[in-house]
Amino acid sequence: MTIPPAESAGPRLRVAPSPTGDPHVGTAYMSLFNLAFARQQGGRFILRIEDTDRARFREDSEEQVFDTLHWLGLTWDEGPDVGGPYAPYRQSERLDTYRPYVDRLLEQGDAYHCYCTPERLQEMRERQQRLKQPTGYDRLCHGKSREERARLDGFSDTPVVRMLVPTDVELRFTDLIRGDVNAPHPDDQVILKADGFPTYHLAVVVDDHEMGITHVVRGEEWISSTPKHLLLYRMLGLTPPAFAHMPLLRNEDKSKISKRKNPAARLTWFQEEGYLPEALVNFLALLAYPPMTETDGSDREVFTFGEFSDRFDWSKVNPVGPIFDMKKLQWLNGVYIRELEPGDFTARLLPFLEDGGVLSGAPSLGELGRLKDVAALIQTRIGTLLESVPLVAPFFVADDALVVAEDARAGLADNAGEVLDAALASLGPIDDAGRGVLGSESDWNGVVIEAALREAIVDGMGIKARFAFGPLRAAVSGARISPPLFESMEILGKHSTMTRLRRLRDSL
Ligand code: GLU
């Protein structure tokens, strides 16, 4: 129970995820608000892994927590991977730490052994419900020795330890976000399980105390636990930290965001879909925090972590559960995508194009050149990096392997054949050397192409521009939706464009 002195006088905050599966988006949200305050105050941010629930433990989950938080740029100063003065930072490695606290509570009479079997507890609960009584442990074991208790029914040889919650105690506390909170009275909580592992309530109090945590910032779902924790602090004669309970993230239907209901509850989903980490950080901040107010009084929703942290103020956090508005995220992601340097944007597309089978491995110089040209066409048109895959794919497929999608083919008007004929004629046939008669490849550019096609199809055939180019789009991209047509033709080059137009024409 010796506690090393704090290195700095600044506040110490922590996030304490349980490694029970894919990291939850709430872990990032919580880390963000903890970190914003810690950085503003020159304090420290700690990552602690709460892995005492062995039944729900998942081996690779911890690594995923590290990876996703790193990806978001939410870095910690102390943690299982980086160490720190209060190591170890994994609860399963701290089991020896908890026992002395339990012994002390037992000696003081603030805790007692409970030998009730799970079956007895179940029957007790059912009886209470039947009689419409408040549910909670009935203290059968309190004040009894093992021998006395063994003579009664529902006895288990391996006891748990429960804290004795006084009935007359004031359970109010002040929350940094919510002000005065009055939580319901708990029953005698288990603090040490039969397997010798501490429960969350005990471990969190002991660890927060031993790690010198000054502010506990966590989800609203823990609000009813806080009075239990405050009681433990009091029984152990320890100074409690300050508390802030962040509003829960909600689905559109107001239900709590869960991995079962919403794919966006998984942090890895945002990586898979191609959200930019900086956009997600901005979005998570906006969920519970107002936009930045400019000096002229206007609001700005797009801001960096640095700005957020500099201006952070607990009193501005909205305690009402924010709706996880995917449209807003999509918009914000588009804003961040458009702000990327072209080279950076292209680099961020690469893993998606490889996963999507558009590129196999690192691109050659030629491929990279083409990709940059295509990237410039789509940067303003996508909401996620994943959306780039079908838009880029047609530029990296052989002309004779391009498949015109069913819907693009079905959408072709009756006069598609004539339109394609007119386009082929106006762009000029390909001579024996594979070169266009109408100018060389080097003259081939979007402006020239557009002028030629408009003249031939819009003016020549009298077809409105809105309908004129659908067949050409289907021919060169194989899809109904593609990057701008004339620039796409320019990038593909004359030979490829003409071959694709001809292939669709021949297939009609
Ligand atoms: N292990 C808890 C969780 O998974 C931590 C709650 C707290 O921050 O006290 O959310």
Which cofactors or ions or other ligands sit in this model? glutamic acid
How would you state the average pLDDT, rounded? Answer: 92
| Main sheet record | 3 strands, antiparallel
Uncertain spans, ≥5 residues at pLDDT below 50? 1-6
CATH homology superfamily name of the domain at 269-394: Glutamyl-trna Synthetase, Domain 2
Approximately how much helix is present in the residues? 40-55%
Spatial order of strands in the largest sheet: 3-4-7
Strand residue content:
5-15%
Question: What is the end-to-end distance?
Answer: 82 Å
Q: Characterize the overall form.
A: elongated
CATH topology of the domain at 269-394: Glutamyl-tRNA Synthetase, domain 2
Per CATH, which architecture of the domain at 269-394?
A: Orthogonal Bundle
CATH class category label of the domain at 269-394:
Mainly Alpha
Describe this structure in a few short sentences.
This protein is mainly α and 508 residues long. Helix content is 43%, strand content 9%. Among the domains are: 126 residues, Orthogonal Bundle (Glutamyl-tRNA Synthetase, domain 2); 109 residues, Arc Repressor Mutant, subunit A, CATH 1.10.10.
Structure overview:
It is a single chain. The chain is mainly alpha-helical and 508 residues long. Among the domains are: 126 residues, Orthogonal Bundle (Glutamyl-tRNA Synthetase, domain 2), CATH 1.10.1160.10; 109 residues, Orthogonal Bundle (Arc Repressor Mutant, subunit A). It is 43% helix and 9% strand. The chain has 21 helices and 11 strands. The strands form 5 sheets. It has a 3-stranded antiparallel β-sheet with strand order 3-4-7. Strands 1-2 form a two-stranded parallel sheet. The protein has a two-stranded antiparallel sheet with strand order 5-6. Strand 1, helix 1 and strand 2 form a beta-alpha-beta unit. Helix 16 packs across helix 17. The protein is elongated, with a radius of gyration of 32 Å. The N and C termini lie far apart (82 Å). 33% of the residues are buried. The N terminus is likely disordered. The site of glutamic acid has 7 residues, from loops.
